[in-house]
């Protein structure tokens, strides 16, 4: 299979606890290469656009509040089967259900403050990368 790219966020609960390096190490250990990375602080409106797919869900406001509460680190990860591999390394959305050794099992605080985001499909990966990065910032 050809190299694939996926979009990742190290969320506010993790940047606040200085876990950027530990989480990035998990990606690299899994064979994913960081081809773009930057630390940013979203406005609530920007977080709302990013998570628009969830706007009818009861947790949407809380989610946007949380995602704009502290800086985040946005990254593009590249590797064989990168989308699925990243989801595997992340673990289940709810840390109580996440497998041993996954990022969410080790670091997440709750289902809401769950340390990482990862794209769920090729189309969303493409859209999410384009929301945060220009082509010139992707260095494979
Ligand atoms: P994932 O981040 O695993 O792709 P998702 O796309 O279903 O999960 O939800 C996006 C984020 O919304 C998730 O990482 C945390 C938050 N969230 C999801 N379900 C929630 C719930 N039941 N209560 C609070 N926050 C929730
Ligand atoms: Mg999702």
From TrEMBL:
Q: What class of enzyme is it?
A: transferase
Q: Name one GO biological process term.
A: GTP biosynthetic process
Q: What is its EC number?
A: 2.7.4.6
Alphabetized, the UniProt keywords read:
ATP-binding, Cytoplasm, Kinase, Magnesium, Metal-binding, Nucleotide metabolism, Nucleotide-binding, Phosphoprotein, Transferase
Q: Where is the Nucleoside diphosphate kinase-like domain?
A: 3-140
The record's annotation in CDD domains points to:
NDPk_I (cd04413)
Subunit architecture? Homotetramer.
Q: What is this protein called?
A: Nucleoside diphosphate kinase
């Amino acid at each position: 299979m050809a190299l694939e790219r996926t979009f990742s966020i190290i969320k506010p609960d993790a940047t606040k606890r200085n876990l950027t390096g530990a989480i990035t190490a998990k990606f690299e250990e899994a064979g994913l290469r960081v081809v773009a990375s930057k630390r940013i602080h979203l406005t609530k409106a920007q977080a709302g656009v990013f998570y628009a797919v969830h706007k009818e869900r009861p947790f949407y406001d809380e989610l946007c509040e949380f995602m704009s509460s502290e800086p985040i680190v946005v990254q593009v990860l590249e590797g064989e089967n990168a989308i699925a591999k990243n989801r595997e390394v992340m673990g289940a959305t709810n840390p109580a259900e996440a497998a041993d050794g996954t990022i969410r099992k080790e670091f997440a605080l709750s289902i809401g403050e769950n340390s990482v985001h990862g794209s769920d499909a090729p189309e969303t990966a493409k859209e999410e990368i384009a929301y945060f990065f220009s082509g010139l910032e992707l260095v494979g």
